[in-house]
Design brief:
Elements lengths: L2 H8 L3 E3 L6 H13 L9 E10 L2 E8 L6 H9 L18 H24 L16 E2 L7 E2 L1
Parallel strand pairs: 1-2
Antiparallel strand pairs: 2-3, 4-5
């Protein structure tokens, strides 16, 4: 991919960051970036690519709005990209208390019945466009013409 094609495709979402040559400079850059909110008129995420900031080291930094993910999900996602990925190092989940487990165990059968029973007693020829009439003939709906099914 040539430079012009790269510039067109990245569209403000990917930025190649050069001039960083140490871990400390990388940390300083991340600290500066996290205090600036510059995602007003573009997608709510941005990738910074930092190639070869030290011999044999490159970095991908993702700046993302908090509504896209929870902390554990994104941490796990990025941990899988590293060479040191180990499932044993994943963040621990908070244990579910006894009362919550009991509540879920007691309410689950009722919730399943509330879904299964209406499905079982539903008419066979029911659909969103049907108003109780048989499923053949002329139907009217969000169309600019009659639809004969």
């Amino acid at each position: 991919m040539n430079e012009a094609e790269w510039a067109q495709r990245k569209g403000g979402v990917v930025e190649l960051k050069e001039g960083i040559s140490s871990d400390q400079e990388l940390r300083d850059f991340v600290c500066r970036e996290q205090t600036e909110y510059d995602l007003y008129d573009k997608p709510q995420y941005k990738f910074y690519l930092v190639p070869d900031y030290m011999p044999g080291k490159s970095a991908v930094i993702l700046k993302i709005h908090h509504s896209f993910t929870d902390g554990l999900g994104i941490a796990t996602f990025f941990q899988m990209f590293t060479d040191e990925y180990d499932p044993a190092n994943l963040p621990a989940m908070k244990p579910i208390g006894f009362c919550k487990q009991l509540f879920v165990a007691l309410i689950s059968p009722l919730l399943m019945l509330s879904v299964i029973l209406p499905t079982l007693i539903q008419k066979v020829d029911h659909n969103a466009m049907n108003t109780g009439k048989p499923m053949s003939g002329v139907k009217t709906g969000g169309f600019s013409y009659d639809l004969d099914v």
